[in-house]
Amino acid sequence: MTLSVASFFMACGGPAANNTTANKPANAANTAAAPAADKAAVETELKKTISDFEAALNKSDVAALDKMYSDDYVLIDQNGGMNTKAARLEAIKSGKIKMEGMKFEDLKIKTNPAGDGAVITAHVSGKNIVDGKSEDRNSMVTWVLGKMKDKGWQFVNAQVTDIKSGAMKADDKKADDEKKEGEHTANANK
């Protein structure tokens, strides 16, 4: 047993035959970080993707949406229901769900350094018609997108949250927090 453990450590301890000085440039090339993507160009691509997505939803263009959703796409809707790509496309194709005047505004885009993954939040307004019943949309959406080889940007996941009346927007909350901080500082200086 001791001999086999010693042999194991001896085998792991020495330099590998292919880890010579001559291989250092190749090893460095294999471990080098990929160059950072052009953030502005990536954001422009993503804004176009969202614009195209908005148009496809408003037209109930199932063929376009099929290309935009990844095969394992999942939507968590405003009611907490989970919808797969197949279920979502079928509901749109059958007319069970229809969107009218859907708009995505106030986009906040965060990308990974390689420029092939993104998280986007947006305010959603417009109308959803579900089983013939019209609902006004006032929601926030979070999308996760990936840039897929030979497919471009695709939606991987989405989550929708309805905005309740009286809910504070992030900018309003920041201003409110700053106001409270100012009041706190003023009271502390008395």
Secondary structure blueprint with pairings:
Layout: H1 2-13, H2 24-31, H3 39-59, H4 62-68, E1 69-76, E2 82-84, H5 85-94, E3 97-111, E4 117-130, E5 133-148, E6 152-162, H6 170-188
Parallel strand pairs: 1-6
Antiparallel strand pairs: 1-2, 3-4, 4-5, 5-6
Helix pairs in contact: 3-4
Structure report:
With 190 residues, the protein is of the alpha+beta class. The chain has one domain (39-186): Nuclear Transport Factor 2, Chain: A. Helix content is 41%, strand content 35%. The protein has helices at 2-13, 24-31, 39-59, 62-68, 85-94, 170-188; strands at 69-76, 82-84, 97-111, 117-130, 133-148, 152-162. Strands 2-1-6-5-4-3 form a six-stranded mixed beta sheet. β1 (69-76) and β2 form a beta hairpin. α3 runs antiparallel to α4.
